[in-house]
Write a structure and sequence with these properties.
This is U3 small nucleolar RNA-associated protein 20 C-terminal domain-containing protein. The chain is an all-alpha fold. It has 2 domains: about 80 residues, no CATH class; about 35 residues. Helices cover about 90% and strands about 0% of the residues.
């Protein structure tokens, strides 16, 4: 029903806050142009309807994940603690890689 470009344009709007620093300005401008072109192509009303439905479904999924995490924390605290330790280890590893990349960047100058 919808093309890949249309879904890409919709997803861009949801991911924009996360990706602000990952992509150059040209990609951001291209995604905005694609979104505007698709909005013109299918009409504003249909675009807004689909955009809102996608946003609503993503919000519902996010809320259900949060709710299930809260239930797990209450029902099985050991499992929740293991999960928190895994995420903390992941964050530490990411921070270590980031610091190493910054140090390597400094050495390259």
């Amino acid at each position: 029903m919808f093309t890949a470009l249309f879904l890409l344009a919709i997803c861009w709007n949801f991911l924009k806050p996360c990706l602000l620093f990952w992509f150059p300005d040209e990609v951001k401008q291209l995604a905005g142009g694609v979104r505007d072109k698709l909005c013109d192509l299918i009409g504003v009303e249909k675009f807004v309807e689909v955009y809102n439905s996608v946003r609503k479904s993503l919000k519902e999924k996010r809320e259900s994940r949060k709710q299930s995490a809260k239930i797990i924390a209450a029902v099985d605290p050991a499992r929740h603690a293991k999960r928190k330790l895994r995420t903390a280890a992941k964050h530490r590893e990411h921070k270590r890689r980031k610091i190493m990349a910054m140090k390597i960047g400094r050495w390259m100058r």
